Fold:
Amino acid sequence: GMDYWQHVEWSLWPSWSAFAESVPETSRLWLVESEGPTRYSDAEFAKGDYLVFGRETRGLPNKFCREAGYRWLHIPMFNERARSLNLSNCVSLVLYEALRQLNFDGEL
Structure:
């Protein structure tokens, strides 16, 4: 288990629409999914952005991804026949790219 829960601020929303309504207008949602048209390293992240990942087994609903447009990201695979990366690896890659772009200063 995690031994640092006391350092984490987290929230739980009853539905996707409740979450979406809570996102400030100045923030952007970046959806990460295997079919996204934009490579994650080509995204230009900013303070206040949100990263959204789907389930490892099913990903995100297509409806949400289509609505995201260019903010629908993918992580390229070096071998198309290889299985995809697991969710924790994907989160690490994209999160650290976003933090790198922000010079590891501040929050997403």
Remarks:
- DSSP finds three helices and four strands in the chain.
